[in-house]
Design brief:
The protein has 230 residues and is of the alpha/beta class. The protein contains eight helices and five strands, in the order E-E-E-H-E-H-E-H-H-H-H-H-H. Strands 3-2-1-4-5 form a five-stranded mixed sheet, sandwiched between helices. Strand 4, helix 2 and strand 5 form a beta-alpha-beta unit.
Length: 230
């Protein structure tokens, strides 16, 4: 009859990107290339790892599709994709499966917020204490909104922060923070449809980060950086 087989249990796919240097690298500024690393974890059975050089692999989606197919994934199979939100990785996972859900990895969101918090602390020597305290309070609010999947309110807080930080004359530290806020604003806007209610998923023991991909990333990138190996 041509009907699809009964789907297996849900499958989780984590994708992450990293940069390694070419063995022909002449300086620290050139010779770098992007490696995409992924790990596909079924509810039952063995996980599979895959990796490719983004600039050279012309059949990126086919590679990922074949990994999923080898694990018995069909068109009616529920699949959860988690990624860092970068355009390269985001485009790779789209349209591979009609029942897939695509989520922004919480680790990368939290990491960016932590960096901005450190920038704010570094601003204390050159800016007023009241500004630093206000920025800290709003960053905590921003993290809370994103953790709860409230994207609209989070974007409002980002706008307030940018207005607070921007001024006619700014210290180098203040300029860095403003640039980071502007980049984070674009990052959230580009990934807003992939931001779930993280706290709800967390309490339901559902995956919210690509931490399980880190071992695969370390195997690929770490191996390439072994000093004795070219």
């Amino acid at each position: 009859e041509g009907t699809l087989p009964d789907p297996k249990a849900p499958l989780t796919v984590g994708l992450d990107g990293g940069y390694v240097h070419s063995c022909e690298q002449r300086s620290r500024q050139e010779g770098w290339f992007e490696v995409i690393v992924g790990k596909s974890v079924p509810a039952e059975g063995a996980a599979k790892r895959f990796a490719f050089v983004n600039a050279y692999d012309k059949k990126r989606k086919r590679r990922l599709f074949e990994v999923l197919h080898s694990q018995g994934v069909h068109a009616n199979q529920p699949v959860t994709f988690l990624s860092d939100g970068g355009e390269t990785v985001r485009n790779l996972q789209m349209y591979l499966n009609p029942l897939a859900e695509h989520l922004l990895d919480w680790f990368h969101v939290a990491m960016r917020l932590t960096v901005m918090g450190q920038m704010n602390k570094g601003m204390r020597e050159s800016e007023s204490a009241s500004l630093s305290q206000s920025v800290e309070k709003h960053l905590e609010s921003l993290k809370h909104h994103l953790w709860n999947g409230n994207v609209g309110p989070a974007q409002t807080v980002i706008e307030v922060l940018k207005l607070q930080v921007e001024a006619e004359t700014m210290s180098p530290e203040r300029k860095k923070l403003l640039k980071a806020l502007e980049e984070f604003d674009g990052y959230i806007a580009a990934n807003r449809e992939f931001i779930p209610d993280y706290i709800d998923r967390y309490f339901n023991d559902e995956t919210i980060t690509t931490a399980f991909v880190e071992s695969a990333m370390n195997q690929v990138v770490g191996k390439r950086f072994v000093k004795k190996q070219q």
